[in-house]
Design a protein that fits this description.
The structure holds 2 protein chains of 2 kinds. Chain A is an all-alpha fold. Chain A is built from 16 helices and 2 strands. Chain B is built from 14 helices and 12 strands. The chains are: A mainly alpha, B alpha+beta. Chains A and B meet through helix 5, helix 6 and helix 13 of A and helix 14 and strand 12 of B.
């Protein structure tokens, strides 16, 4: 049993946790706000782009199975180039951390607590994130295998009872405003479709199965299809009100009568979703911590970096992007940068991996000839 | 060296030879000899009957001075060995053996087994009582314990390696495994661990347990233990290595996974469907034991809006006049329960039962009636206390975690409970020992081992040995489906 490495199964499970945790909470509202009835088409376009990038990232993982991403990049782009790419990745992950913080806060504040103090919420969350920096990556990924059953339960309880109540007429007419708003919405919300860059950080630590790519792509495609269906369902249930429903999955709970008629048992679902969000927060925090370690070339664990990231996030959350609206506006403002990073990181990594692979092959041939 | 001088030397090597006896006698009525033994651990009667008597009655014959001739005389009455090192005499004597020295052979010693170690007989172990299945338990006697295992595994592959550990205690520590199943690396690893122990004395297997753990600071144990020979035999059959310590009725086993504590000894002597349900209930019980007080506090303090209205009224009425905050109230009850538990453990058995009853029924009721504590707080704490003992081996860990979870829930509500839950799982997932993850077969997932996890398959379908830890032979039964 390969104890030190992350298994393909663990990786796929964590990818599912990563995808479900935020997409199914925040994104339906944002897509609905931008594309109206055609939110599900935006979801479809976003999913296709996401699948392409997933394919690139999986290739990087397969080709660089023996070395970490930093070494691969450094070999092709020199130290500065590699560090720049890792820095971009850190920025992307940092922004995702902020989104996760705000989503967790909204979910908790609107559904669990009557009201919660921002400081009381954020400080434990950051301590939680810092603690992830002190555990081995394999432990984080193993934990996914314990929690994945909860995703299935939560999804089944959230979605299945709602399906009969869908009103597809709410989604018509299709493409009333053309493709423009759809593409614009996807472009503005690209960050929410990003769910694989973090995997690059674990490149070299993964024990890949023979049909790893096929398995992973199938699961990613299934999740994508399910997400498109989910947005369609969300839109068809709430119609024009969908853009005001900030936490999609929590709002669906009002349709699951068997959960709400004997008291508010929907909190179980909220808790499961909060758990997924926190897991994603933890692993994203770990990945951003790993980025900084690569940038400063630190061989030891350097837990203080975690504290540094936490303090920075604390100040940004409280003083810079201190409302959800500000964060949303910021994401829209920096959308071109996000789009560039979103596409550049997997693409450059992919190219570097290809080049490294071909160089390895050439040198092997040379050795054989000699 | 003359026999008399030798005798003096042995007696003076013991600081205070209060129980060391030196019995002089004549072999065949002519050759002087002395028998040394420690009266408290070697049977004086056995020495007289099995050694002195046959040697004294030996016929005067040619070659009677020869050591081989002498040992032949006792070969039918006792087990003996010839030792040549003086240091061995002391060790053998301390192990209950009798040393016979014959005039003219003071460089060779006959060590005869006359051990009569004081101890109790085989009885049902108090920590692993079962409804169905064998009731034998290990004792403090190493030989008896080995015999109890040997009785169940009649194979020449059963291997035993002995070590002496402890500078002063010289405790016998035996490593046992089935050679054709156990992984060689694990065996070597265990041996290396035991050889590296440098301590003054080993008084119980728990001493060894701590040396076998990969993490020095760890609230969860990483070594399995049992008092039941049938359980240990089944572990050997799975390819585990066991460690038996002389003087301890607890036998250790490695590699250990957390799931072992979810499996009760009598699970294997019951219907597998019933057992699967019971295991699920045990797991649920353990989770609830840790989380229920915290859940109660967080619902009462922060999430009252998600309680059904009737329940909310009920709880509000009960806590109306209590002087403490919910967190403090539950903590007080939990601490009181722990104190009662400690007291009932250490009291004489007949008093302990009565005291715990009085404490639980009278004190709890009186506290609620006096308005000092609310009845839901007492109820929740009592429930958690009962559920804690659903997994007796994990009770100390559950108890500690319960306090941590309660305090976190008191500060952060469900939000804190979820975070604590995640961190606990990650912590458990980070623990590996002897190449085995503690959370296997769940994390990492091992499909083969799942046949005996929460859902236990019928024995006919459990054809493979566990894969969560290395072993040489993966096949357990060759007749899938019992055909």
């Amino acid at each position: 049993m390969g104890l030190k490495k992350i298994s393909t199964r663990q990786l796929i499970i964590f990818f599912c946790i990563y995808s479900f945790s935020i997409k199914f909470l925040t994104l339906p509202q944002l897509l609905s706000r931008g594309a109206g009835n055609d939110a599900w088409i935006s979801a479809l376009v976003g999913t296709i782009i996401e699948l392409l990038l997933i394919w690139l990232v999986l290739n990087v993982l397969v080709k660089g199975r023996d070395s970490d991403i930093y070494s691969d990049l450094r070999n092709k782009l020199t130290g500065v180039g590699a560090k720049s790419i890792i820095l971009l990745m850190f920025l992307l992950l940092g922004l995702q951390l902020l989104i996760l913080m705000w989503t967790s806060f909204t979910l908790t504040n609107e559904n669990l607590f009557a009201s919660i103090n921002k400081h009381l919420f954020i400080l434990p969350l950051l301590v939680f994130g810092v603690l992830f920096c002190f555990v081995p990556a394999r432990a984080i990924f193993r934990s996914g295998e314990v929690f994945y059953i909860l995703i299935i339960v939560a999804l089944a309880l959230s979605v299945l009872p709602v399906i009969p109540q869908m009103r597809p007429a709410e989604v018509t007419p299709i493409l009333a405003n053309g493709f423009g708003p759809i593409l614009n919405t996807v472009y503005r919300n690209l960050i929410y479709f990003e769910s694989v860059a973090f995997l690059l950080i674990f490149s070299g630590d993964i024990k890949l199965d023979k049909d790893f790519k096929k398995k992973f792509m199938s699961i990613a495609a299934l999740i994508g299809i399910f997400f498109v269906f989910f947005v369609f369902m969300f839109q068809s249930l709430f119609g024009p009100l969908a853009e005001y429903k900030s936490i999609a999955i929590a709002n669906l709970a009002i349709y699951t009568k068997f959960l709400t008629q004997g008291g508010r048992l929907d909190w179980v679902l909220i808790c499961i979703w909060l758990l997924l969000l926190l897991l994603r927060f933890g692993v994203t925090f770990f990945a951003s911590f790993a980025c900084i370690r690569y940038i400063f070339n630190l061989k030891h664990r350097a837990g203080y970096i975690g504290f540094g990231i936490a303090i920075s996030l604390y100040f940004i959350f409280l003083f810079v992007l201190n409302t959800k609206t500000r964060l949303d506006n910021f994401i829209i403002t920096v959308a071109p940068v996000i789009a560039a990073i979103f596409i550049l990181i997997p693409l450059i990594s992919f190219l570097c991996a290809i080049l490294a692979r071909s160089k390895k092959k050439t040198s092997r041939k040379e050795v054989e000839n000699v | 060296m003359k026999l008399e001088a030798f005798k003096k030397k042995v007696l003076t090597d013991f600081t205070e030879p209060f129980d060391l006896k030196a019995r002089d006698f004549l072999i065949a009525g002519k050759i002087p000899a002395v028998a040394f033994f420690i009266d408290t651990i070697a049977g004086g009667g056995r020495v007289a009957l099995e050694i002195i008597n046959p040697l004294s009655r030996l016929q005067d014959a040619k070659g009677k001075e020869n050591l081989d001739f002498i040992t032949k005389a006792i070969s039918s009455t006792c087990f003996f060995e010839i030792k040549e090192k003086y240091e061995d005499i002391i060790t053998e004597l301390l192990n209950g053996k009798t040393i016979v020295i014959v005039e003219g052979h003071t460089k060779k010693y006959i060590s005869c087994d006359t051990t009569v170690m004081p101890g109790r007989g085989v009885a049902e172990p108090p920590t692993n009582s079962v409804v169905m299945g064998p009731r034998e338990g290990f004792t403090e006697n190493l030989v008896v314990n080995i015999g109890l295992i040997r009785k169940r595994l009649k194979t020449p592959d059963l291997t035993l390696v002995n070590h002496k550990v402890g500078q002063y205690s010289q405790t016998n520590v035996s490593i046992m495994y089935i050679k054709s199943i156990a992984d060689d690396d694990i065996v070597k690893n265990v041996e290396d661990h035991i050889k590296s122990i440098n301590i003054d004395g080993i008084l119980d297997s728990f001493y060894i347990m701590q040396y076998l753990q990969s993490e020095a600071f760890n609230i969860f144990r990483q070594v399995g233990s049992s008092e039941k020979p049938d359980v240990i035999a089944s572990k050997l059959l799975e390819g585990r290595v066991i460690i038996i310590v002389d003087g301890s009725p607890i036998v250790l086993s490695v590699p250990y996974i957390l799931l072992e504590d979810l499996q009760a000894a009598d699970d294997y002597y019951n219907n597998n469907t019933i057992v699967s349900v019971r295991r699920f209930i045990r797991l649920l019980g353990a989770v609830f034991a840790i989380t229920i007080p915290g859940l109660y506090i967080s619902l009462q303090l922060y999430h009252y809006n998600i309680l059904p209205l009737n329940t909310l009224f009920l709880v509000t009425n009960s806590i109306e006049n209590t002087p403490f905050s919910p967190l403090l109230e539950v903590l007080i009850v939990l601490i009181l329960f722990e104190i009662m538990y400690e007291a009932s453990l250490r009291m004489p058995r007949h008093l302990g039962a009565a005291t715990s009853l009085v404490a639980a029924l009278v004190l709890g009721g009186a506290a609620v009636e006096a308005g000092l504590l609310s009845s839901p707080a007492v109820l929740v704490s009592a429930l958690s206390m009962i559920m804690m003992y659903i997994l007796p081996n994990l009770a100390p860990q559950i108890s500690l975690l319960r306090f941590v979870f309660t305090i976190i829930a008191g500060i952060l509500g469900l939000y804190g409970l979820i975070m604590a839950g995640i961190l606990l799982v990650i912590y458990l997932a980070s623990l590996d020992n002897f190449g085995t993850p503690l959370l296997a077969p769940f994390a990492p997932y091992c499909p083969t081992d799942s046949q005996d996890a929460i859902i236990m398959k019928n024995i006919r379908d459990r054809t493979k040995r566990p894969t969560s830890f290395p072993n040489k032979n993966k096949t357990r039964a060759k007749n899938p489906g019992g055909e």
